[in-house]
Amino acid sequence: MLWRAYPLQPDVPDEGIPLETVLEKKGVPVNADQVTASLKETAERFKVPFGGNKMVYNSRLAQEAGLWAQACGRAEAFHDAAFKAYFVDRRNISGKEVLLDLMASAGLDAGKGRQVLEQRSFAPAVDRDWALSKKLGLVAAPTFIMGTDRLVGARPYEALERLVTRGGCLT
Predict the structure, then answer these.
(1) How sure is the predictor about 28, in pLDDT bands with cuts at 50, 70 and 90?
(2) pTM (2 d.p.)
(3) Residue 123 Cα to chain centre, angstroms
(4) Pure H helices in the chain
(5) For 121, which DSSP code?
């Protein structure tokens, strides 16, 4: 089975829902064990850790935290911590305390981070990102677009190279 990207899920409650429920809602004709096995295989191919998370959590607040981390020059460290928390440690990244822990581990000031989360300082920026995603018809991350061609989900380097070559950026 080919790796299928998780669709963006803005309507998932903070406490999360089982992956099986998300798949049923989307009419995906596979079970969560198949999807998880496929993701694990992809992770192994890319030498990325994967803990087999079978829950889907709302990542909205984590996206806001990520934009703040970017503004502070700590985006990579925060995103690495958030990836590990969700995909390896199976943590619920919708929770403020989890996000504050991730911020601190990324070298950010957790006190300022709490203020950013409580004031929802980066909510308008995430709203703009979601509006653009909807306009472009994005359903999963990552998605690469080159002209009218798209590459959705984690793919080998060669697939990205083919996309860029077809777009006329490489010769």
Answers:
(1) low
(2) 0.80
(3) 17
(4) 19-26, 32-45, 60-71, 75-83, 96-105, 110-119, 123-136, 157-166
(5) T
